[in-house]
Amino acid sequence: RQKKAAFICCMLMILQQLGGINAIVFYTSTIFESTGVDIDPKVSTIIFGALQMFATFLSTIAVDRLGRKLLLIISNIGAGVSVAILAVFFTLQSRNILDASTLSKLGFIPLVTLSIYVVSFALGMSPIPWVLSAELFPPEINSIGSALAGVISWFFAFLVTKFYFDVQAAIGIDITYYLFAGVLILTLVFVCFFVPETKGKTLAEIQKELTE
Predict the structure, then answer these.
(1) Which residue intervals of 40-172 are DSSP H helices?
(2) Distance between CA atoms of 25 and 130, rounded to whole angstroms?
């Protein structure tokens, strides 16, 4: 049970960061500069900050109504589809598939897709792995397990933000975002097959489910 709980929590933390959330939030202004969209970086940062706060508030309400697993599924679908569309936009731009005039008409796509991505992530993938790390471990190792999950999360957050531009330069900005989308699809599969629903369950019920 303890090994399975650790596996689920640590994998969620790793996938959370490999989905690109911190790289995208930290480098929002740079991303918009890459798209060529004429948006004030300060304005975009404020917009995304407000969206994150609003979505996190919604998550606190929905998590005990819809359940952890369903919110994770919704979160990964929304984030995965939106970042995949953004990746397609970067392909059209960086591969010179469309001319500048046509791309300017599609300039709303980065703002819309990134907004959906941020909201989707804040609804589930951002808060719920932390909730599960507190619910899946038995009391005797809860503090150790939660601390381990936290260390792993921030370690991978460091790796993603540190090497984001290096990866982008090596394989292209569009491929980088396809990778983020791929990770989110993988996370969706992982959630469906490995993550138990803990809504309304006692610790004994959760621990029993982990042994099945």
Answers:
(1) 41-66, 68-94, 100-105, 108-123, 128-135, 142-171
(2) 19
**Average pLDDT in the chain:** 86
User: Per-residue pLDDT averaged across 16-24, rounded?
Assistant: 91
**pLDDT mean over 65-83:** 92
Residues 6+ apart with CB under 8 A from 160: 17, 18, 20, 22, 23
Tokens of 113: 């897709």
Place of tokens 């792993």: 152
Specify the DSSP class assigned to residue 136: S
Q: Which of 68, 98, 93, 37 is CA-nearest to residue 76?
A: 68
Contact 122, 50 (CB under 8 A): no
Q: What is the pLDDT of residues 123-182, one digit of tens each?
A: 899 889 998 988 888 888 888 888 999 999 999 999 999 999 999 999 999 999 999 999
Instruction: Check: CB of residue 89 under 8 Å from CB of residue 37.
Output: no
Who contacts 136 (Cβ-Cβ below 8 Å, separation ≥6)?
5, 8, 9, 145, 196, 198, 206, 210
pLDDT of residue 9: 92
Closest by CA position to 63, among listed 110, 126, 117, 18: 126
Residue 107 three-state SS: coil
